[in-house]
Amino acid sequence: MQFDHCVGTKLEELCMEEESGQTFGRRMGRWRYQNGDDSQYKSKNLTAERKRREKLSQRLLALRSLMNKVTIIEDAVKYIKELQKNVKVLSDQLMEMEASTSMGDVKIPNGETVVADEMEQDKIEPDVKVTNLDRHKLWMKITFEKQRGRLTKLMEALSVHGLELNDISLTTSTGVTLISSCVQGTKGEVLEASSTRKLLQEIIERI
């Protein structure tokens, strides 16, 4: 009985050792399998992260380029709004001058006096005279047939071509409008009297 008991005990110990060895082997196998998978997953994650960062970098570069274009457009819109504002202010001033100015003389800086009443009333031909004050400024004198809204159109056309008027003097008579003013470019560019005179004549013929 004691022998059988000892044999049984030894068999149980051997079974337990075998089972323990198998369990340890399975654990080691799982650890190795899991360790191998972790390395593979880490490699995939690194590749995905690198691609994600590359896409993000490309998007940032595209955004910076777009922001530069947006800034240019915003500056252009701001400049156009300022021009429109100046046109409106000058147009309002001209309308007030048209309403309040009566018949009279127009004084030019060199002291010459032009009497509007001396012009022929039966046929009024537009007349444009332009002289140089300096490289960036001209002095103009324009006479044309008086029509409602014509002065406003003239101011708008000059603004479109990058010209602005200063020191405006306006005289209206029966059917005649006479304007004298200093002309200069909105960007301070050099102006030529001949080309500016030609431009003014073309504008007056259109309006």
TrEMBL record:
Cellular component GO terms, alphabetical: nucleus
Gene Ontology MF terms in the entry: DNA-binding transcription factor activity; protein dimerization activity; sequence-specific DNA binding
Predominant localisation class: nucleus
Location relative to the cell: Nucleus
Keywords for the protein's UniProt record, in alphabetical order: Coiled coil, Nucleus, Transcription, Transcription regulation
Coiled-coil parts of chain: 73-100
BHLH domain segment(s): 46-89
UniProt-listed PANTHER family: TRANSCRIPTION FACTOR DYT1, TRANSCRIPTION FACTOR SCREAM2-RELATED
This protein's name: BHLH domain-containing protein
